[in-house]
Structures are given as structure tokens and as C-alpha cells.
Design goal:
This protein is 25% helix and 47% strand. The chain is built from one helix and twelve strands; from the N terminus they run αββββββββββββ. It has one helix at residues 16-68, and strands at 74-78, 81-85, 90-92, 97-99, 104-116, 119-130, 133-143, 151-157, 160-171, 174-189, 197-207, 211-213. The strands form two sheets. Strands 1, 2, 3, 5, 6, 7, 8 and 12 form an eight-stranded mixed sheet that branches. It has a four-stranded antiparallel sheet with strand order 4-9-10-11, with helices on one face. Strand 5 (104-116) and strand 6 (119-130) form a beta hairpin. The protein starts with 15 loop residues before the first helix and ends with a strand.
């Protein structure tokens, strides 16, 4: 009996079908990996931007609070007595909420150093909002003081969506005794293809002069 052995020769390598399947699987895996990476990258960018905006608002509000709390009346010190000009009160806008794209004055106040002889100074300070930015100006309007820095439309904060004000009188029913001015700002960053990023910060300034909502 004779047995005939038949050997089938197969060439080494992959078929076109196998290569196609492998390519499809690779593309799917890379697509999924890119989606994950893109999502993580966008999340990181938003977190970084949020932190940057919060830092800017915090620094801006701290600066404004410190300048506001220096509000004072003009006083003249003489041998026969002192005089205080209480007409230079703290003026605040009437609106409790102001949009960032408004063109409006927010507050006006005075920083005074007593007049004794030829020395003494009055700085007129203003806080304005326009084009989603908050500007601060401090100029000498009486006397002189070379040691104090002046500001001309200094940009304190940017990307402002709106700002809110509220006041709390130290003595109920008497604004002459000063008040606590609460400020809350909202900054908005718009990025194409993403939801708007909004962050907020707030502070309170203790004002020791009369506060009037007359702007």
C-alpha cells in the first residue's frame, strides 16, 4: 500500500483582509486615545485659565479695597482749631448691578492728608467700568505729595461680565457714620467651541466717611 503525502505550502505574511482589520482596529484605538487626550487637555486649559482669572480678580479687588478704605475728609489743622470738609464724601453708583460692557462710573472718593501750613494733599479717586474692564484713577487735586503714586486709568481687572455692590451701614439709618461696601465681580471668558468660563470673587471695604449712592 502506498501512502501519498500532500504538503500545502503557505507563504509567510498577512493577507489583505488581516491587514485591513488591523488598520481599522489601530485607527479606532488612536481615535479613542486622541479623544481622551483632547478632553484632558481642554480640561487642563480651562482649569489653568480659571485660576488665572481668579488670581487677577482677587488681586484687583484687594487693590480696590485698600484704596477705598483710605477714603477720608479734607482737614486743615491750625493753632486756633481744626476744620473738616465733609462735603468730600464717598460717592457710589445707584445701580446694585452693573454690566461689564457698560460705560459707567462706579465710585468716587477722596484720599486726604491733613493740611498743616503748606503741607497737605487731596487725591481725587475714581473707579470706572468700560469694555469689560475696570479702571482706577487717582490724581492730586489740591496740595502736593511727591511720595504718593498717582494712577491714570489703571486697568485693575479685565473680562468683567458684571459687578455687584451692596452697602451695610455701621449705624442703622445713618450713612454719615460710614458703611461697609460689598463688591462681587464676575469674569467671563468665551472660547470657540466651549462653554463660557465664569468665575467670581468678592470682598468688602470698610469706609469711614459718609457713603452716598449719588452716581
Amino acid at each position: 500500500m502506498v501512502f501519498v503525502m500532500v504538503h500545502k505550502n503557505r507563504k509567510n505574511g498577512f493577507t489583505v483582509v488581516e491587514i485591513s482589520i488591523a488598520c481599522i482596529v489601530f485607527v479606532l484605538l488612536m481615535g479613542g486615545a486622541y479623544g481622551v487626550f483632547s478632553g484632558v487637555s481642554k480640561s487642563f486649559q480651562r482649569s489653568t485659565k480659571s485660576l488665572s482669572m481668579q488670581n487677577e480678580m482677587r488681586n484687583g479687588l484687594n487693590f480696590i479695597r485698600e484704596e477705598m478704605q483710605r477714603a477720608s475728609y479734607k482737614s486743615v489743622i491750625k493753632i486756633n482749631g481744626n476744620s473738616i470738609d465733609e462735603s468730600k464724601h464717598f460717592s457710589l453708583c445707584k445701580n446694585a448691578e452693573i454690566e461689564g460692557n457698560s460705560n459707567k462710573r462706579l465710585a468716587k472718593w477722596y484720599i486726604c492728608k491733613p493740611f498743616v501750613g503748606t503741607s497737605g494733599v487731596v487725591f481725587t479717586c475714581t473707579l470706572d467700568i468700560a469694555d469689560n474692564k475696570i479702571y482706577y484713577t487717582k490724581k492730586v487735586t489740591e496740595g502736593s505729595d511727591a511720595t504718593e503714586k498717582e494712577f491714570d486709568n489703571k486697568v485693575v481687572m479685565t473680562q468683567i461680565g458684571k459687578i455687584k455692590f451692596s452697602t451695610e451701614e455701621f449705624v442703622a439709618g445713618s450713612s454719615n457714620q460710614g458703611a461697609l461696601i460689598n463688591m462681587e465681580t464676575f469674569a467671563v471668558n468665551s472660547t470657540s467651541g466651549q462653554a463660557d468660563l465664569t468665575v467670581s470673587a468678592q470682598t468688602g471695604a470698610r469706609i469711614e466717611v459718609k457713603v452716598v449712592k449719588d452716581i
